[in-house]
Amino acid sequence: MILRSKDLIGLEDLSREEILTILEAAEAFRTIFDRPVRKVPIMRGRTVVNFFVEPSTRTRISFELAEKRLSADIVNFDASTSSLKKGETLRDTAENIQAMKIDMIVVRHSSPGAAAYLGRVLKASVINAGDGAHEHPTQGLLDIMTMRQRLGDLAGRKVTIIGDIAQSRVARSNIYGLTKLGAEVTVCGPPTMVPAAIARLGATVEHDLKRAVADADVLNILRIQLERQSQMVFPGNREYHLMFGVTEEVLRHTKPSCFVMHPGPMNRDVEISSAVADGPRQVILEQVTNGVAVRMAVIYLLSGGDPRQLGGGARAGVREEE
Ligand code: CP
User: Against a cut of 0.85, is the pTM above it?
Assistant: First the structure.
């Protein structure tokens, strides 16, 4: 096995070498997108189930496209019309799906630990597509892929993550992945949204936005997750925007080369102004494109694919669908 585990639950569990292997495979798969036929036959005969129990646009469609571009057979599980609604447990539902002879399950769930739990009880590979406030490993990988395309080696590079750090699986996956690649991560937001314990993951905490962005190479701006607030931790959207919203005025305090990322979905004019979201510094849709390539790489490697088959000339040699 190129990856040590049958599952991808979080970037906390991956070594630096495993992260780099996935990113290199993703770059190889990314080249397919510029071909007239954006499809390769390497997952033919394998079945992947997309098991989304929490809303998603980008991740769900991105996984589905990745699976289709690898020629896998796919099933999209619809939680709202499933027997989960009749009280069936997550485990029973997943074991029944596995009994239909499938190879891989992509899980999005609102509970932290749901993907790890399914990974323990199922023989099929489990990919975490976001579990509550725990991790979103493929988002972390696609963010890192986008940063490396712009900056090259991330050792010594400065990444500032701004927003609702406490509720953010994206922040956690970014911190684990980026620090393993040698980047310096600063997190910024109101004290009620930045738990002091985050420093234990290797990030520096800074509550002053202008100081946090001053020497950053990248700003990764997080969505204010209203659906995960058990109580309001800031006075309102307008106040948040005034204090921590990334605007053109805030960008004036950054290096000219500093660029802006957002995992989506965006709250325009709350955590990011529309002018920045649509402006020349942002790479938000590049992130989305890279997401499909990252997910192809993860699916390929977890299914036992050999990255050496993708390297060098095989970058060109990821064979097209006949
Ligand atoms: N970035 C992200 O996870 O978006 P979705 O919730 O739309 O999948």
Answer: yes
